[in-house]
Amino acid sequence: PSRRLDQPVISVGNLSTGGSGKTPFVIALGELLKERGIHFDVLSRGYRRRTRGVLVVDPQGSAPDFGDEPLLIARKLGVPVVVGESRYDAGRVAEQKFHPQLHILDDGFQHRSLARDFDIVLITPGDFEDRLLPSGRLREPFSSLQRANAIVLPQDFSVEHPALREKP
User: What structural domains does the chain harbor?
Assistant: First the structure.
């Protein structure tokens, strides 16, 4: 069952392992929110960090402590970034310390233990030719896109691409 934070959660995720541009998208979304005066934070697992528990990312810190992507986000956006194995616990810490109006959940499409209010899924052209783990890089089938509120395609990828018509 999903647990809900007090403030809304916007998730940015993908279907595949590896790079789909989530971090640059989170930064761009964050810049947009800042321009509109919306107070937010970013919640992340902190992939490949060597520490445990919930930590607020120190922009002057190191990637082994927080993960390279959360560190980059904190440096670029200048907003609170909170890492933790439990994104719910990270969100609770963020709400108590920073009183955000909303949370951006980095790499959150598969993180179902935290309730999300809006799911954005980034798709790469390679996703259409890929297969599910373990033989491919897809974490979920394309049918899971039904859970998404928005799907983001690369700028040079045409919505007329045959793969978009072939997948259910």
Answer: 9-166 (3.40.50)
